[in-house]
Amino acid sequence: MSIVLWASFAEDWEKQHKVVFDGANKRIVVYPYITAIDIKRDIYSAWKEWVTIRDNAKFPSAIRTIGGDTTIGTQRAGDIYFLINGWKLVVDFTATVISGMLFSDDFDTAYFDEYLNPTYPAQVSSTVNAIETAIATLDTATILKIAQLTFTKANELDVNVQSMNGAELLGTGTDQDKWRGQ
């Protein structure tokens, strides 16, 4: 029996995927001993390989992606992945760290525990993309000036004020020694 089983699934096992695809039940199950999953490599790319094995293409597509478009120069927009056609990713968040952005077209989460209860990973904001887009509209001189700004403490701009409105600045800024122009 084990020889027949190996022969039937040898191509799957040789790929050494971190997940198993269950096309009949539309589940992508992370093996319990896996501690890290990269959505692009371990889910999306693995699924594209899995579809080519045997008759797995008969199952509904599991995933789609957006992103990767060229933005500025050689930079590219980040990839975002969506499970489609009722597929679910079964993963234990207490054992496995996920890298990448995965959503579901069919459910309010793409992630489920072993009992198929929905689970919700920490949400990540794409603030950086908005900042990069805003900077892309600036002229070169302004971008170079922004690049000269120094932040040694998060969200606090380092300032060494020596003059204000063309006058040398005196004082330390305390109640006893207020800042004043010369």
The residue ranges in which pLDDT falls below 50 over 5 or more consecutive positions are 4-8
Spatial ordering of strands, largest sheet: 1-2-6-9-10
If helices are DSSP runs of H or I spanning 4 or more residues, what is the number of helices? Answer: 4
Which shape, going by the Cα principal axes?
A: elongated
How much of the residues is beta strand, in percent? 15-25%
| Biggest sheet overview | 5 strands, mixed
Span between termini: 93 Å
Share of helix, binned: 10-25%
Structural class from helices and strands? alpha/beta
Mean pLDDT: 80
**What would you report as the Rg, rounded to the nearest angstrom?**
26 Å
Q: H/E series, N to C?
A: HEEEHEEEEEEEHHEEE
Task: Find the count of extended strands (DSSP E, 2+ residues).
Answer: 13
Structural write-up:
- This protein is 24% helix and 22% strand.
- The strands form 4 sheets. A 5-stranded mixed sheet has the order 1-2-6-9-10, covered by helices on one side. A 3-stranded mixed sheet has the order 4-5-8, covered by helices on one side. The chain has a 3-stranded antiparallel sheet with strand order 11-12-13, with no helix packed on it.
- The longest helix is centred in the first third of the chain and has 13 residues.
